[in-house]
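pinned: reference chain
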Amino acid sequence: MDSLKNIWMVFKRELKSYFESPVAYVFLIVFLLLLGFLTFSVTRFYEQRVADLQPFFFWHSWVYLLLVPAATMGLWAEERRTGTIELLLTMPITIMQAVVGKFLAAWAFIALAVLLTFPIVITTEFLGNPDMGVVVSGYVGSILMAGAYVSVGALMSSMTRSQVIGFVLSLVVCFLFIVAGWPPVTNMFVNKAPKLVEIVASLSFMSHFESIQRGVLDLRDIGYYASVMVFMIVATHLVVDSRKSV
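pinned: its structure tokens
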């Protein structure tokens, strides 16, 4: 119980810090406007005359690629730069509790941004009769994928004092996770290491999201995102623990 209370304490502290700055509101506005623009203008949503949110969900991974690193780059980098990490770690909490609390706060912030896109669902419902089960599944998959992005961002942020470097590292790693399943990437291994093709493809954020987006909540896809988050959280704990006095 004490562990949950400590995680909750860090969670509230971090989530509150997002909304104490106008940056959070700018982030939410940019996120919603960007997704709306890409959905309705770039993919010509209205012209398709089909009540299908696939064009909307298609852009999530690319919008996350830019905005999630921006939202997570200061999770640990800013703490280390300002020296407040020492204050945080002198509180009666473990490093793992601090890592989990920060991760959950950032994930909740991104999840809130995703849920605020509900007007797009209402618009689609008005235009036709979408399969709401598929829509809900798409949101579940998107939020799970966002958690994976956030966990990567948290790890990259813990490796540096610079938010800019944390942003760039996070962007690069997340981009690699996106393109891992693309044919141009997997084709590189077809001749030299054919056994690695399926392994590399299975690491892609996109391939697992596309499966859930179609309305198939496969435990393997959910387990994949959970595994990425757990691995990144444990790695973040190791990095913070090794650098807490640096």
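why pinned: Residues 178 and 205 are 5 Å apart (CA to CA). DSSP finds 15 helices and no strands in the chain.
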